[in-house]
Amino acid sequence: MGQLSESFQRVSMTTTVSRYLFCLLVAGFTIHVSGMLFITDGSRGTTISNLTLFLPALILLLIGREWRDPLLSRQYIPMLALLVFTVLVALLNKGSIIKGSEQFKAALYIMLYLGAIHWMVSRDVMEKVLNLLFVIAAAAAFASIAYHLVMVDSHYLLSGDRLFKLGYENYADFQNPIVAALFYGVFGVYGVHQLLIRRYSCAVTLVFCLGVLSLSLYMYCTLSRGVWLGYGAAIGASVLLHNDSRSRKWLAVSAGVLLLAVILLSPVLLEQKVRGLSLRDVIWSEWLARLGDFWLIGAGAGKSFDICIANAQCFKQAHNLYLQFFYEYGIVGAILLLGMIGAVFVRSLNRGLRASPLGTVGFPLFLFALLTALFDYHTVMNRPGVYWLVFWLPIGLILSNGSRAHVKSQQATSA
Predict the structure, then answer these.
(1) Contact, 379 vs 387, CB < 8 A?
(2) pLDDT tens for residues 55-84?
(3) Would you give the DSSP letter of residue 206?
(4) In DSSP terms, which residues pair with 313 in a beta bridge?
(5) CB of 30 within 8 A of CB of 132?
(6) Can you give the pTM of this predicted structure?
(7) Are 133 and 26 spatial neighbours (Cβ–Cβ below 8 Å)?
(8) What proportions of the chain, in percent to the nearest 5, are helix, strand and coil?
(9) Per residue in 185-197, pLDDT tens?
(10) CA-to-CA distance for 378 and 323, rounded, in angstroms?
(11) What is the DSSP string of 329-390?
(12) Strands (E), 104-217
């Protein structure tokens, strides 16, 4: 009896510790994402994220099978294979800039990031977290636009300047308009999805409408055309995915607002035609010309794709996630990346996995990530940040589909 009592106490203590760690993890994920707006010291933000998100996730991964087993299930195998391969390249490819230990740390962090998403989805917390983050992001977008209209230029929307920061102190300063557009684009797509599938009260619906409008207007102000493309395609896909009278109503409203915006902002929009591909075509042509040098084993993990055009403009990356990944990890790495993307994409279209509250949001967010990867970001193996939010968040949501039912069945069995 004594051994049984001690065993019960250990299980009870583990359950209590797990509960507190999970609560800390939820707060940590919220702080991590919102901290991209409000934590201006990068090292401080990293420390906070490590202590409140990644450390609790690591402990949960180690102390209980109910936390660990879902991440070893079949749908995660392509992602695990990709991460293991990147570590091997960092260890074995002499051209790698990143050490094997550093690459292992990045792979572990990605695993913990996806684990945190899975656990929040399976316990019906993720939607609440994303709703809160949507409101925070929308408020930051609105404040940024308002600040620039009032304090910088009352005609800012027609000035042709590219917006990427709040303007006050260093808050919500992404230092690059494309990065800013990617961050706000994620929440714009999420907000449209929620309006399509949720029947909120009039007050909440108004908040979401104003939020989507603020986020969309901010993205216009970044003049990031690749993000515009991904944003429009993701919203269109979300409408098609929920093809009913409600989605058609929102589509009609959106089309009307878009037409009005195009008319009012046409001078700036027409100016974007002269920018062309912003030298991306030259960079991609050079990538193709060098293909024979790296196609088999890759140039090495973290290796920069250096190119100078007319000895005036120099770049250190291929301005395309797929080309940059191929350059660093070779043909096998490219196949593993595309294989993982294909597996996740097919899973996102599985009708049988759409019963959970976030069962359909992964598809438009993933489409947004895939299209913007063609033009606007080049790595997803770096430190946690905006690129992770764009790429790994939808992957985590899609791979977590069906986990809610799995947890309930486990609880019923244990009861």
Answers:
(1) yes
(2) 999 999 998 788 888 998 999 999 999 999
(3) H
(4) 309
(5) yes
(6) 0.92
(7) no
(8) 75, 0, 25
(9) 999 999 999 998 8
(10) 8
(11) HHHHHHHHHHHHHHHHHHHHT-GGG--STTTTTHHHHHHHHHHHTTTT---SSSSSSHHHHH
(12) none
